[in-house]
């Protein structure tokens, strides 16, 4: 089913039942689109997408939702993709961007995953020109709901000029961050790529960091959050601050083969983002 207006996208995304929704063109609208279970929302070509809209995926186990091949713009005062208490979601091959404003809170998150979201993969996306990229776990006081959940994988994404939260994790284990490319995360002395806090367990593997103020926080905590655990292996850092490690992390619950870090930059820059599936 192809949609070419924001209202039609909202109607189809919120309808019951399984369907694939093909987005044709850039669709602009304000407010929230509630994406219901068993939906694939996929852009047509390289230049289709949504602007001014929060795609909300909430209270579904499993959700079985795919968001793919879209150009997604930041939402002033809100999240572009908001996942709460939902499982089995794939965010893939999107190009996501906003603008760097003086007010870090002008936009909220690009992909925020909270309230025990689980079994989520964020892959082959470009996220560019954004302050607060991807929050995992919304507050330090939510351990009761979040512990044992927030199992999330980030791989082969390009984070460029994303000045924090790529991702910032509370409680989740294991959050697997591998074969991503980080560039120009250096707006100021507080800029960083990855943070593990509140006893989260994060595996950071085979990533490339170039011009990143601080690759990872863990043992130091971050802001007012307590330390998390973080294991780092086979990463490449150029003109970048260290990836702080702390403790051990549980094994990921799947088989995989990480790409050699020496080829990650070429793979990600040639294949990530909308129009490349």
UniProtKB/TrEMBL annotation:
SUPFAM superfamilies: Pectin lyase-like. It holds the Pfam family Pectate_lyase_4. GO terms for cellular component: extracellular region. GO terms for molecular function: pectate lyase activity. The keyword Lyase applies. Keywords: Carbohydrate metabolism, Lyase, Polysaccharide degradation, Secreted. PANTHER family: PECTATE LYASE 18-RELATED, PECTATE LYASE 21-RELATED. Belongs to the polysaccharide lyase 1 family. This is Pectate lyase. The lineage of its organism: Bacteria, Bacillati, Actinomycetota, Actinomycetes, Micromonosporales.
């Amino acid at each position: 089913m192809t949609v070419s207006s924001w209202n039609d996208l909202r109607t189809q995304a919120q309808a019951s039942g399984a369907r694939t929704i093909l987005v044709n063109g850039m669709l602009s609208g304000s407010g929230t689109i509630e994406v219901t279970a068993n939906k694939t929302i996929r852009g047509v070509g390289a230049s289709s997408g949504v602007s001014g809209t929060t795609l909300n995926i909430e209270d579904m186990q499993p959700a079985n939702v795919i968001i793919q091949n879209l150009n997604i713009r930041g939402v002033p005062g809100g999240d572009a993709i908001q996942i709460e208490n939902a499982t089995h979601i794939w965010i893939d091959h999107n190009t996501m961007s906003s603008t760097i404003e003086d007010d870090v809170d002008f936009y909220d998150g690009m992909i925020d995953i909270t309230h025990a979201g689980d079994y989520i993969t964020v892959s082959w996306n470009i996220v560019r020109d954004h302050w607060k990229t991807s929050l995992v776990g919304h507050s330090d006081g939510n351990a009761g709901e979040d512990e044992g959940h927030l199992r999330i994988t980030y791989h082969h994404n390009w984070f460029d000029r994303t000045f924090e939260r790529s991702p910032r994790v509370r409680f989740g284990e294991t959050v697997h961050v591998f074969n991503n490319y980080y560039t120009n995360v250096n707006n100021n002395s507080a800029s960083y790529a990855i943070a593990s806090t509140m006893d989260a367990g994060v595996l950071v593997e085979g990533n490339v960091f170039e011009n990143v103020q601080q690759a990872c926080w863990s043992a130091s905590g971050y802001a007012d959050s307590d330390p998390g655990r973080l294991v780092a292996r086979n990463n490449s850092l150029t003109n970048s601050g260290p990836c702080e490690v702390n403790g051990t992390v549980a094994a990921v619950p799947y088989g995989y083969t990480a790409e050699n870090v020496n080829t990650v930059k070429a793979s990600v820059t040639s294949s990530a983002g909308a129009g490349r599936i």
